[in-house]
């Protein structure tokens, strides 16, 4: 069975939010309908965004890394949001694996948002229905659009090609090769949701961080004597563990507690909290 999905390369995402704005523009004027915004430039902005980008730092000063993390529905192969829907509004398409919401059936009970461990559901206050990323299903099959442009709006807009789109069940597809060759991973696989979307890990450039405190520059050692007590710079693997732990915490912070994922912690979060 075909399973369409996004693969996001964290190594080249620059946090420009082009994916966010292009997603908003395409979907608010397409079959998904108007995506509400309330006080978008005020102190308490509220609106519907199918795609969001969060930015934070990992590592220990002075060896830190900035990570830009795009977040949207992961189109799980075992989506917990589908079986909890009392009206059948949330469903997974058999032909391509895309998880969608039928707004005509949705009653806005928010059960799906409680069931989703990734906090990927968006409630539209204006229409009183749940919404989410559709992988631009109304675009990718539109024969009036040139073949090269039949991809999600966020993929077309990304200036660094950090977003790939394709069938993760096809071993020869671009996305499958990227996952295989770059060590792509799904978020919180222990939950059993089998997310279709994957992330490609960051790769530290050579010389980005000294192997230990003694490798710091003379200026740094002189200007900041206390730097000698700084712990050795973390390895690339350690930074990746910390980044994944923060991803899990970010998702948890934006999702309501539910029996689906309550009490679960990733191994990365456990390691992070132990520091």
Automatic annotation (TrEMBL):
CDD domains: PsrB (cd10551). GO terms for molecular function: 4 iron, 4 sulfur cluster binding; metal ion binding. The lineage of its organism: Bacteria, Pseudomonadati, Pseudomonadota, Betaproteobacteria, Burkholderiales. Residues 4-34, 64-95, 97-126 form the 4Fe-4S ferredoxin-type domain. Keywords: 4Fe-4S, Iron, Iron-sulfur, Metal-binding. Residues 208-231 have a biased composition (Low complexity). It comes from the Bacteria. This is 4Fe-4S ferredoxin iron-sulfur binding domain protein. Residues 200-231 are annotated as: Disordered. PROSITE patterns: 4FE4S_FER_1, 4FE4S_FER_2. The keyword Iron-sulfur applies. It holds the Pfam family Fer4_4. InterPro entries: 4Fe4S_Fe-S-bd, 4Fe4S_Fe_S_CS, ET_IronSulfur_Cluster-Binding.
